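All the exercises in this workshop are built on plain-text protein records. A learned vocabulary of local backbone shapes supplies the integers on the structure line. Once this layout is familiar, the rest of the handout is easier to follow. An example says more than a description, so a record of this kind follows:
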Amino acid sequence: MKTAVGIGAAALVAFASALAFAPRTPPPLAPTTIGVERTHFNAITQVGNRILTVGAMGEILYSDDKGAHWTAAKLDQDRQALIVSVAFAPDKKTGFAVGHEGWILRTRDGGSTWEEMAFSKENGEPLMSIARLPSGDWITVGAFGRALESKDGGQTWQPLALPAEVEDKHMNRIASSADQQHWLIVGERGLVLKSDDAGATWQTEPAFYNGSFYNAMATKGDGWLIYGMRGNAFLQSAPGAQWVKSQVPAPISFFGHALESDGTIVLVGQGSMLGLSKDGGKTFSLERAKGRATLTDIVLTSANNGWMSSDAGLQPFPPQAEAAPQADQGDKP
């Protein structure tokens, strides 16, 4: 009897071993996707039908289906440096991205592949914004008064002459009017540079605020809206007009903007807060998006829908409804 049991046990072990090592067809793997829910993104833009976003570790992602799926662009150098800004030429193929350590990248295929044009690991001041002028020249500005221009498509870069008032101030953004004849460069300590000849020459606007400006947008009638830290936003209704402080109900710092089809201005900023203005930037109401992230930029892919970038991933716009925090209820007596 014991012999029969032993033989049976041996046969069972042999069968299990044969089954374990037998060839088999593995189940299909789930399709891989790039997670965009938690990555730090600094800017997002649309080029033709493609959306591009750039991030904190040198990531450049693009989507050709309005954000349903994302693909990592190919970079010839993996610097893992923060990329801050991206801009494209009218051909929608040639573009540049800039960031920390003086990093400048160029694409010639709409953002699928990028080549390094400049990088300075030692004493490389951050570059914060880049733009293409109507002349075809490219300009980029950044920290400690650094400003560069390229007249040969990005092959070489030289210092850009700006007014002496720039000193060592950080310059955060280059903005243009729709016709690209009027330009602003805004930065810290209330710095505002203006050009009315398509970026050929620059003048300093008389000081009207001593804090940091993070961005600017053109408004109707050749006006401007400039905004920045702690809810400070200023409106100029026409060239040469006085800068008037906008009414913002809370000290929220804003970093990016969009214009909806009905003329509503949307600002995005810290604490997942949005500033909404229906009167051209004179007054703003506040709305909260999902979470408590710092919203860094926004792009509309249709009349009133798009994406917002943040330090905690991408979010759809308009923001999805979020339940009120339980802590708020606990504060009640």
